[in-house]
Amino acid sequence: MKTDHEWAFELFSQDLQQSSVLKSVQFKQITGLPFVYLWPDCTADQSVVEDQLKRSAAKAMKGKRLTLAMSYVRKSQAFYVYRVRFLVPQRKMFCCGNFCDDCIRFT
């Protein structure tokens, strides 16, 4: 059974893939952080790409208690790179090593 976080990321991915603003989208996970590589249409600039990211994220988060953490990383000649995360409120994001009852290792 998928969590809200997993459903949101899946919906986000599908919406970006179907966008008319973007030619291609690729997701990579580097050191545990999700990065999105976006190849825009030739007429789209960075503000249009960011608007599309925010619209897709808003659709994915609708009805869920999630927040968006998005940051611009870099631009190549052909693509933009963003780090996009959906954060769950009041939930630990890492293991502190103290064997807590609500440790993320047990979920």
Written account of the structure:
Helix 1 (4-17) packs across helix 2 (46-61). The protein contains two helices and four strands. It has one domain (4-87): Alpha-Beta Plaits (2-Layer Sandwich), CATH 3.30.70. It has 107 residues and is of the alpha+beta class. The protein has helices spanning 4-17, 46-61; strands at residues 22-30, 33-40, 67-75, 80-87.
List the helices and strands and how they pair.
Elements: H1 4-17, E1 22-30, E2 33-40, H2 46-61, E3 67-75, E4 80-87
Antiparallel strand pairs: 1-2, 2-4, 3-4
Helix pairs in contact: 1-2
Provide mean pLDDT, rounded: 86
What's the total count of β strands?
Answer: 4
CATH architecture: 2-Layer Sandwich
What is the CATH class designation? Alpha Beta
CATH topology title: Alpha-Beta Plaits
Distance between the termini: 12 Å
Proportion of residues in extended strands = 25-35%
**Proportion of residues in helical segments:** 25-40%
Which consecutive residue ranges, at least 5 long each, have pLDDT under 50?
none
Domains (count): 1
SS element count, helices: 2
Shape: elongated
Structural class: alpha+beta
Question: What key attributes describe this structure?
Answer:
Alpha-Beta Plaits; 107 residues; elongated; 4-stranded antiparallel beta sheet; 2 helices; alpha+beta
Brief overview, please?
The chain is α+β, with helices and mostly antiparallel strands and 107 residues long. The protein has helices at residues 4-17, 46-61; strands at 22-30, 33-40, 67-75, 80-87. α1 crosses α2 (46-61).
